[in-house]
Design brief:
alpha/beta, about 30% helix, 9-stranded mixed beta sheet, 15 strands, about 450 residues
Length: about 450
């Protein structure tokens, strides 16, 4: 395979089911649907840890959170070891980053060079959950530029400008959109697409107040927050605005793809679209993320490779750790032996591939809390255990029960025991590899 450029586009808090090509007939995502038709759609893709910063830690380190200790939303990438951008740089690939970073801090501030994971070109911000006000981007030198545009349009505009600057050399560009993370603030044309429409809730959803405060910027009291006044205590309105934000994201992805075509880059650039984690939206009576349910852990994945497979749909399970080795392969570089994950490139080229059986996910909260778990998905079964003693809590047959309504953990004890052993063996191996890496660095 010829060396290719990589354009990695990722959303924030977009679950796998918010796409037309995933069977959702109520959402408007024509550009992403077209991208899937021109490439491949992976229907079973999981975030290894469904929360913003820890996901990014896995993406750029190629290691699980239990190996790096990146569990919190202000954690930084490990100071030791080589991140993905470091290895790409060494291989002669120009690395570029645009948008939300959210590693090593929070706030509407710039990201110092030592926190950027090795990216050569960098323009973005740490974390600021507002789409309409203080749309600030900080460049490599810490210079702040303020934009009088929606954050989504601004992110796409900057990405297109940066593509022009690097188009004549091999590159890997990562574009991090804030959409559709709360607070939901779609522009009017996208808001109007869903205004007054009755959208179908997932069958496992119950009525909840979907409103969530933000820390960056600090949210005022409910009665002073325009977002609460707009959709607080109204799940249906939240869904309408969420769909509008996804459609706005889709529109801007389309703009960036058009720029690739305009600059002649489309025929030698791999396009990857995914998200860091999902959004519960009332499923199982909860909101947000960090939970093991499908709405939280399962994310979209579309990969379009020049001269690759077209219109293929795969049910193989992919997870965040698989991006590091795959991107290295697309860029024509040797694989790294100190990262986890597998290279899914052959599937995207239309070749037969013997793919691994399992994907794993985790989250670390207080012991015995619902936010403290390990998870494995293998075949049709998905088992969840709490971390302290690997006590099984949930087992689902996702073929028969895709909405996870029937917990089989006590009904199928042999499956529960078997999958518990799988999780324990995986964790033991990952921790042993982390200890070995630490010893080698001393």
């Amino acid at each position: 395979m010829d060396r290719l450029n990589v354009l990695f586009l990722f959303a924030d808090q977009m679950h796998a089911f918010a796409l037309g090509c995933m069977g959702n007939e109520e959402i408007h995502t024509p550009h992403l649907d077209k991208l899937a038709a021109d490439g491949v759609l992976f229907r079973n893709t999981y975030s290894n840890i469904p929360i913003c910063t820890p996901y990014r830690g896995v993406l750029f380190s190629g290691k699980y959170a239990c190996q790096t200790g990146i569990y919190g939303n202000t954690d930084a990438l490990p100071a030791d070891g080589k991140c993905l951008a470091d290895r790409l740089n060494e291989g002669g690939v120009r690395t570029s980053y645009v948008g939300k970073w959210h590693l090593g801090g929070k706030g509407n501030i710039g990201v110092p060079a030592e926190l950027r994971g090795g990216f050569q070109d960098f323009i973005g911000y740490q974390c600021y959950n507002d789409f309409l006000k203080q749309v600030w981007f900080f460049d490599e030198n810490g210079n702040r530029e303020e934009f009088n545009k929606h954050r989504s349009e601004t992110t796409a505009d900057i990405a297109m400008e940066r593509l022009e600057q690097i188009k004549d050399e091999p590159f890997a560009m990562f574009v991090s959109f804030q959409d559709p993370h709360y607070p939901l603030q779609p522009s009017k044309p996208f808001d109007r697409m869903y205004r007054g429409k009755r959208l179908t809730r997932r069958p496992n959803a119950v009525d909840i107040d979907p409103y969530t405060k933000t820390e960056s910027p600090p949210t005022p009291n409910y009665e002073l927050d325009p977002n609460y006044l707009r959709y607080g205590d109204d799940l249906d309105e939240y869904l309408r605005m969420y769909y509008a934000m996804v459609s706005q994201l889709d529109y801007n992805v389309g703009r960036i793809v058009d720029k690739l075509i305009e600059t002649g880059l489309y025929d030698n650039t791999v396009i990857i679209f995914t998200s860091d984690h999902g959004d519960m939206q009332g499923s199982h009576g909860v909101k947000n993320k960090q939970l093991f349910w499908e709405e939280s852990t399962r994310v979209p994945l579309i990969v379009r490779v020049p001269k690759g497979a077209r219109g293929e749909v795969f049910d193989e399970c992919i997870s965040t750790v698989d991006f590091y080795p795959s991107i290295m392969e697309y860029c024509g570089l040797m694989p790294a032996d100190d990262v986890e994950g597998s290279n899914f490139v052959p599937m995207t080229l239309g070749l037969e591939q013997d793919w691994k059986k399992q994907v794993f996910a985790e989250n670390k909260g207080r012991p015995m809390s619902p936010y403290n778990w390990f998870m494995v998905r293998e075949g049709k079964y998905k088992l969840v255990v709490e971390q302290t003693a690997f006590q099984p809590t949930h087992l689902y047959d996702l073929e028969q029960d895709p909405y996870e309504l029937v917990n089989l953990v006590d009904v199928l004890p042999h499956i529960t025991s078997q999958y518990r052993s799988v999780i324990m063996n995986w964790h033991q191996e990952m921790m042993a590899r982390a200890d070995h890496a630490t010893e080698g660095a001393v």
